[in-house]
């Protein structure tokens, strides 16, 4: 037991050590069964132990006074809602009677929680897009660490866990939960992973959780780009299909046009044949007219009228003959033009064939790009 005469020194020492002890501490002095003095650190406090309150008869302080010996005890969360390690030192008077107890309550933190401030700043900066990390007990957020790139400002140290929060669900199920959340929750697409932390002595008891939240902005952008690209490619592919159909129709039309041009050339050649035939008739008619004129001259006055007719036949023959070169000239001109059109038609036909082939190649390329876009979308979903 410690002498009551040293109580003030204990108080001074405790006040000096309250903010130094890692994890925090709560000092109490109990006189008989009433709390007379307390000193809590800013890191740890229990509002259930206040000055003027009466302690329970089965508390460690009461036991230490009864047994006149220093007692140590691990207090489970079930009793006071928080795990802590406590030491009770009985204080005696000059008659060696236990008149009080000096207690020290130190929070019992999971090793991950205890070292959070050491590793969290490093881990959070290792994620390419940054990360926000926090640890909780079973009621509230104990510590939070955000990277320079990414911080969820709505989450703060000391916040009470919402019933539908991922940490609360992990506490209920005692299993890790990894889920994707859309921008309706934190204003940006994120991946949230929460892990249960179990008591190091009793592995069946969950005592805390560790949560890591990483943004999925790049993945979301990739998905949007992929969706837009896929949509645009679909539209382009549709337009190219229509173009290919048009090219095919043009090809068919060009074939028909080329066929008809060949028919026109054939008809031109037939016109030339007819012109030659007319020339032959004109030559023969001229000869007949000449013969008729000779016979009319022989007939004298009686054949005078027949001679006039013969002259008209010769004139008509001459006119027919003079028309033939004009027909031939026009026919040759038509033939020349038609041949020019035919040549252009053949070039157009070849171009339309090339266009159709190129269109098919473009369509195949777009199908490959579309497949790549789908794969890009799948990769984005996995990020």
From TrEMBL:
Keywords: Transducer. Residues 216-383 form the Methyl-accepting transducer domain. One of its GO terms (biological process) is signal transduction. InterPro entries: MCPsignal_dom. Pfam families: MCPsignal. GO terms for cellular component: membrane. PANTHER family: LYSOZYME-LIKE PROTEIN-RELATED, METHYL-ACCEPTING CHEMOTAXIS PROTEIN MCPB. This is Methyl-accepting chemotaxis protein (MCP) signalling domain-containing protein.
């Amino acid at each position: 037991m410690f002498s009551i005469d040293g109580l003030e020194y204990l108080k001074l020492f405790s006040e000096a050590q309250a903010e130094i002890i890692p994890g925090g501490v709560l000092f109490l002095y109990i006189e008989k069964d009433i709390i007379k003095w307390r000193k809590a650190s800013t890191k740890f406090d229990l509002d259930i132990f206040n000055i003027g309150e009466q302690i329970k008869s089965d508390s460690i302080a009461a036991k230490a006074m009864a047994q006149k010996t220093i007692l140590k005890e691990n207090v489970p969360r079930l009793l006071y809602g928080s795990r802590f390690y406590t030491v009770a030192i009985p204080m005696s008077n000059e008659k060696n009677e236990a008149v009080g107890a000096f207690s020290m309550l130190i929070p019992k933190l999971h090793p991950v929680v205890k070292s959070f401030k050491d590793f969290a700043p490093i881990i959070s900066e290792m994620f390419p897009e940054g990360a926000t990390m926090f640890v909780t007990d079973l009621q509230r957020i104990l510590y939070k660490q955000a990277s320079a790139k990414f911080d969820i400002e709505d989450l703060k140290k000391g916040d009470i866990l919402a019933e539908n929060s991922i940490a609360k669900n992990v506490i209920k199920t005692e299993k890790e939960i990894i889920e994707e959340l859309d921008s309706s929750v934190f204003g940006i697409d994120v991946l949230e992973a929460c892990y249960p932390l179990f008591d190091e002595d009793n592995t069946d008891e969950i005592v805390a959780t560790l949560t890591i939240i990483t943004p999925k902005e790049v993945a979301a952008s990739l998905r949007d780009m992929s969706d837009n690209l896929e949509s645009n490619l679909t539209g382009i592919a549709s337009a190219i299909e229509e173009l290919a159909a048009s090219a095919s129709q043009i090809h068919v039309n060009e074939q028909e046009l080329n066929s008809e041009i060949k028919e026109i050339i054939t008809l031109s050649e037939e016109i030339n044949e007819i012109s030659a035939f007319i020339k032959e008739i004109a030559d023969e008619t001229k000869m007949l007219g000449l013969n008729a004129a000779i016979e009319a001259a022989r007939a004298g006055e009686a054949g005078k009228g027949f001679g006039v007719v013969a002259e008209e036949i010769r004139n008509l023959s001459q006119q027919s003959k003079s028309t033939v070169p004009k027909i031939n000239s026009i026919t040759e001109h038509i033939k020349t033009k038609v041949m020019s059109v035919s040549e252009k038609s053949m070039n157009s036909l070849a171009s339309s064939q090339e266009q159709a082939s190129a269109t098919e190649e473009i369509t195949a390329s777009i199908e490959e790009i579309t497949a790549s876009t789908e794969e890009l979308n799948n990769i984005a979903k996995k990020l």
